[in-house]
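Below is one such protein, fold included:
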Amino acid sequence: MVRLATPEDKADFGISNPSKALFFVENEKVTAPENRISNHKEVADGLYRQFGGATESVMVARTNAQTFKFSNGRTTWFVNVQNFPKRTAMILFDGENEPIIKYNTKNYERLVKKYLSEDLEKRQQAGKENKAVEKEATKVWNSIDAVSFTPDQKYADRIIYHSNTTYYPLISFEDGGNCNGRFQNIIYLDAKQKNISYTFNVTYINGRMLEYAYSREGLESVQKYYLNTLGLLDSIVNSQNGKREMKLNFKYLPDQFIIHSSLGFREEFHLMIRDR
C-alpha cells in the first residue's frame, strides 16, 4: 500500500521531515459495517484530542484526502487510500521511516504511543501548563465581565464605523457596506484551471462578514462571526473540519472593548477620545 513516489504522482497532502503525521482516512469504494466506521471515527477523535489537535510538529487529522506524499529528506513515499483493501485506516509517519498503515482500530493507540510518544508527552505537558494559564486568565476575565455596561446604538455605531481595528475595519474596506451574499474564490495550481490549490468562501450582510471558510488539501477552516442586535460582534468561532478550535468573546465597556479567547489570551482596544 506504500510505494516510492514518482515525479508524476500528485498528492492531496505532502508531509516532509521534520514534520510528522497521523491521518485517519476512509476508502469510500469499500463497504464496511456502520459500527466499524463509527468506531474508527471515535478512536481517531480520541487521539486527536490527546494531541490537542494538529501541532507544529505533528499533523493530526481525520481527512477525506485520498493521496499522500511523505518524505524524510532522502526518500519520498506515495500512498493512495483508494488502493486500501479496508474501508478505514490510520496512516502514521514518524518523520524518518516508511509510513505505517493500520486497519485495526485496536492497534491505533498502541502504535501512536510507540512511535509518537515523545510528541504526545510534550503536548500533554503543554496542555497542563496551558490549563493553569487559562484558569488564571478566566479569573481576570470574570472580573471584567462582571462590570455592568449596556451599549446603545450610538456607541455601537462609533465602534463599527470609526474604531478602525482588526475586528472593525473602516467600512470603505468592505465595499461601502453594500456587499451582501456568499462569494467564492478558487485558486488553481495550473493555467488550465484543472487542479485546485485552495478555495475560500466569504458571506456578507450589509458589508459585514458573517463567515469565512477556507479549504485546502482535505482540511477546512471556518470562521463564523456572531453579531448582537446592535450590530456589534458578540463572538467569533473558529473551527477545523467541523470541530471547534477557538472562540473569541467580546466585552464592551464605556471607553474600550475587550476580546477574550477560549485559549486564554486577551486583547484590549481603547476608544479614541473623539470616538467616545
